[in-house]
Request: fold
Amino acid sequence: MSTNNYWIRSYFVPQNVQLEFNALQDGRISVQASGSFFGSFCDYVAGSGKILDKERPAVFEVSFETNYSLAKKVNTYWVLSTDYESYAVVFTCWKTLDDGTCDPEESYIWTFTRSLSGHSLSDLAAINDAVPFVCMSPRDFKTFQQDGGCDFNPFNFPNTYGMVFIMSTIFIGFIIFLVFFIYCLTKVSNGGVPQRKENVIIFN
Reply:
């Protein structure tokens, strides 16, 4: 099952996202997820979940085996809408405010489809009806790129524990720091004399 649309506040949005859900014999749910970051860096994360109440199977908890602390905790997911065949809308809230409502900065919503070509018009109509129930707008949705990148084989799943995302983020941060450092060295070597004024260093 592939992810087609999403609502997520992130500077590093993955592409080619795919997920596999399976019901286990002990009543739990296995989850396998993959996606690419910064082009061709593929990451694979496995997790598990359970349905909290058999009378409400649309609500379940999931935790992922990852080194990324925010995803490692147990979070509750809600299936807002599905036809059990071609689409599903899933919502999760990772942090609640003092008044009991979800923090918009920690709320996520995805739509899923089995087709890489995207949702049908009837699917989109159902999705548009479901999203406002969690105070979001379909206009805020973006589309994941699906170009076939990142091989996904649930029977031979290379769990990387979220390390690709973490290392890629560190690498980007290092490049930014290096560029800034070289810029400062260039200014000094060109005769710029740093002066301190109101706790701000200024190069002349």
The first helix runs from residue 69 to 72. DSSP finds three helices and eleven strands in the chain.
